[in-house]
Amino acid sequence: MPIVDCGHHGSVQGKRRSYVQSVRPVGYPNHAVLCNKANCEQPGLVWLDVEESKDYQNGQRIFGPGTTGVYQNKGHIRGYKLRKMVKESARQWPRPFSLHRGDGSTVEDATYAGEHHEPSFQLLEFDDGSLSVRFCYYDDAGRFQRSPLIVNKGEVAGLREALAGTPRLRALLHEIVS
């Protein structure tokens, strides 16, 4: 079972397990889980043992019972509850789609794992060569949602950073705002 520790208290060791990898929980460092050490108010990292680390590398995002020792403190959650967010790299690219106006592929995607969902800007390339931008999101289980995208101010910087790796999408969005 993972543990939560900010990493500033020396080596992270459990009573029965050795922890080999830390991962940032959804929303880190804002609205993230807090360190489990007494009187520590630092955002916590989720520490995984060898097997959990392998599972994480294979896309697993929920570990353990998920609610052990969880309580609210100053708007943060102490303890841990990993929400299942599918990493962008775990999705297949290009990804085919079929819409009422034609078929094509999602060729670029700028995604940020936010606190409540995973907003995404996607570059759609239709079979006829035309380009479109889709503003969408994935829920906390990694499922594509067909509802309107709502992005809060805290997610803007993460999306901006994600756009750095999508030159064609970034150029098309630049045309929209310029």
Overview of this protein structure:
By secondary structure, the protein is α+β, with helices and mostly antiparallel strands. It folds into 2 domains: 3-78, no CATH class; 88-177, no CATH class. 17% of the residues lie in helices and 31% in strands. The chain is built from 3 helices and 11 strands; from the N terminus they run ββββαβββββββαα. The protein has helices spanning 50-57, 153-163, 167-177, and strands at residues 3-5, 19-23, 33-34, 45-49, 71-73, 76-78, 95-99, 102-111, 118-126, 131-138, 144-145. The strands form 3 sheets. It has a 5-stranded antiparallel sheet. Strand 10 and strand 11 (144-145) form a beta hairpin. The chain is elongated. Mean pLDDT is 78; it is low at 65-89.
Mean pLDDT: 78
Low-pLDDT residue spans: 65-89
Total strands: the figure is: 11
Order of helices and strands: EEEEHEEEEEEEHH
CA distance, first residue to last residue: 49 Å
Q: Let me know the largest β-sheet.
A: 5 strands, antiparallel
Number of helices: 3
Globular, elongated, flat, extended or rod-shaped: what is the shape?
elongated
Topology:
Blueprint: E1 3-5, E2 19-23, E3 33-34, E4 45-49, H1 50-57, E5 71-73, E6 76-78, E7 95-99, E8 102-111, E9 118-126, E10 131-138, E11 144-145, H2 153-163, H3 167-177
Parallel strand pairs: 3-6
Antiparallel strand pairs: 1-4, 2-4, 5-6, 7-8, 8-9, 9-10, 10-11
Labels describing this entry:
single chain, 17% helix, 2 domains, elongated, 178 residues, alpha+beta, 3-stranded antiparallel sheet, 5-stranded antiparallel sheet
